[in-house]
Design brief:
The complex is a heterodimer of chains A (209) and B (276). Helix content of chain A is 12%, strand content 29%. In chain A, β5 and β6 form a beta hairpin. The two termini of chain A are 23 Å apart. The mean pLDDT of chain A is 95. Chain B contains five helices and 13 strands. In chain B, strands 1-13-3-11-6-5 form a six-stranded antiparallel β-sheet. In chain B, strands 2-12-4-8-7 form a five-stranded antiparallel β-sheet, covered by helices on one side. A two-stranded antiparallel ribbon of chain B has the order 9-10. Classes of the chains: A alpha+beta (209), B alpha+beta (276). Chains A and B meet through α1 and α2 of A and α2, α3 and α5 of B. Chain B: It comes from Kibdelosporangium phytohabitans. Chain B: InterPro entries: DUF1989 (IPR018959), UAAP1 (IPR017792). Chain B: This is Urea carboxylase. Chain B: It holds the Pfam family DUF1989.
């Protein structure tokens, strides 16, 4: 996949375990590049003009009748409006069900000993606060590169990833969209091979910075 | 009866007292004529039949059991649950399915909050046709499918009704997360594609138990991927009664290690909060 190099408005690396946010303007393309492979990128999206309109996993799933995201998937608000379209994807599929790790949910999944480990919800709260968003604004999120199959009996879980170094997903903004990212710190499940690694974020196009 | 005068209008309005229709609340709930087996009439705290396209809501005490019944086979109960004392703690469907390692809701599963606690437990289930993935219907989606999605129209969307129900508890649109739906099912294929399984038929019930004081919002509207072209939804019966919360001796407490820790977290919270 070739990222358009002559129209770059942002190119940054998000460290392992760190938060990130930016507004992707209408028509611009955000590329999320999995530098180390199998790094889960927890991702929320809001209409930048009215943050009460935000990504809805449920509406996105219902609209496309599929739990996985890949090329052609449209991330929608809780009222069905398109925020971002997946215009390219070299990984194959991405998770809509697993949500974010939190200090609280980690106590259920692994035990009370994980209570004081850093977690994605902390990143969402930290980064959301920069845009006036609080806990009530957090909803189920996308996990780029995370592999969450569902068995016939409903059993679901985060399993070994299908991503690899250099794989990339590209999202075109259908409206000015605030994206908030937690580059997942998780060290208790296989979502990032028990070893968080950095990811690269590139915004191109749209003719505006 | 003339309504041309204030006296006539008053008499006309008052003459409606005592009218009984199927879709209405019974107040007090103890007047409901058919308490569930083993439940005394005076234990009832909520008795209501919700019209198709309607919604309802209630604050329930810890330990209350809530029975929802699909009377005619085409109800779809979209449900949201909040901590009544701190409603920024609310149902988190992602944690509910991820933590309990299952996308399909079944007895002994908890409806988990974003704070890793159990808001409510599924006690019994005669239906098995439920969904935690697709959320509820949207105003724009219903407008596209049925010609109208507004609350005042003939095919209201779940999100519009949730918005109204939430407002009556001081909650705003940003307090409305993805919901679960009961009595209309969805299954996931290996490819990720969803299949709508519809209903298990008329007369099926689900019983939930409140594990802390909760706000319950219910919208009875068609499932968002119900493929039928007509807006198809039939009345939902809601009954609730005073009962006991889950204790360390209850089978639900130890149904899974994740569930046990969720009940332990809940007990820890309620103890510190002075509720239990």
């Amino acid at each position: 996949m070739t990222t358009v190099q002559n129209d770059v408005v942002l190119d940054t690396e998000v460290a392992a375990r760190a938060p990130f946010s930016t507004v992707v303007k209408t028509g611009q393309v955000l590329s999320i590049i999995d530098l180390g492979g199998n790094q889960a990128v927890d991702f929320l999206a809001y209409d930048a003009g009215d943050t009460s309109k935000r990504y809805s996993a449920a509406v996105t799933i219902a609209a496309q009748r599929n739990i996985f995201l890949t090329t052609g998937s449209v991330l929608r608000t809780q009222e069905g409006a398109p925020l971002l379209t997946v215009v390219a994807d070299t990984c194959g599929r991405h998770d809509t069900l697993g949500g974010a790790c939190s200090k609280e949910s980690n106590t259920l999944r692994y035990g009370q000993h994980t209570r004081h480990q850093h977690a994605c919800v902390e990143n969402f709260l930290t980064e959301g606060a920069r845009w006036g968003l609080g806990k009530r604004d957090l909803v189920s999120n996308v996990n780029w590169y995370m592999n969450v199959p569902v068995e016939e009996d409903g059993t679901l879980g985060i399993v070994d990833g299908i991503s690899a170094p250099g794989l990339e997903v590209q999202l075109r903004a259908e409206t000015d969209t605030l994206v908030i990212v937690s580059n997942c710190p998780q060290i208790n499940n296989p979502c990032n091979g028990f070893d968080p690694t950095p990811v690269r974020m590139v915004v191109t196009g749209g003719g505006a910075g | 009866m003339t309504t041309a005068t204030t006296y006539g209008a008053r008499d006309h309005a008052r003459a409606q007292d005592g009218t009984v229709v199927e879709t209405m609340p019974t107040i007090p709930a103890a007047n409901w004529p058919e308490p569930p087996e083993g439940v005394a009439a005076e234990q009832l705290v909520w008795a209501e039949t919700v019209a198709g396209g309607g919604y309802t809501h209630k604050v329930l005490a810890r330990g209350t059991e809530l029975r929802l019944t699909d009377l005619r086979g085409d109800a779809c109960a979209h449900v949201l649950v909040y901590n009544a004392d701190a409603p920024w703690e609310r149902l988190n469907v992602a944690d509910t399915v991820k933590v309990q390692w299952n996308a399909y809701m079944k007895p002994a599963m908890g409806l988990l909050s974003d704070q890793a606690r159990v808001l409510a437990t599924i006690v019994t289930d005669e239906s098995g046709h439920h969904d935690a993935l697709c959320g509820t219907s949207t105003v724009s989606g219903n407008a596209e499918r049925y010609g109208d999605g507004s609350p005042q129209g003939g095919s209201p969307a779940g999100l519009g009704l949730f918005t109204l129900a939430a407002a009556k508890h001081g909650l705003e649109p940003r307090d409305i997360p993805p919901s679960i739906s009961l009595f209309q099912g969805v299954r996931v294929q290996d490819s990720g594609v969803l299949t709508f399984t519809g209903s298990a038929g008329a007369g099926k019930s689900v019983v939930l138990r409140a594990e802390m004081p909760v706000i319950v919002l219910i919208a009875n509207v068609p499932h968002p991927i119900d493929p039928r072209p007509a807006y198809t939804v039939t009345p939902l019966q809601v009954l609730a009664w005073r009962a006991q919360p889950t204790t360390p001796d209850s089978p639900e407490w130890n149904a899974s290690p994740e569930g046990r820790r969720a009940f332990e977290n809940t007990a820890d919270y309620l103890t510190a909060r002075g509720i239990a």
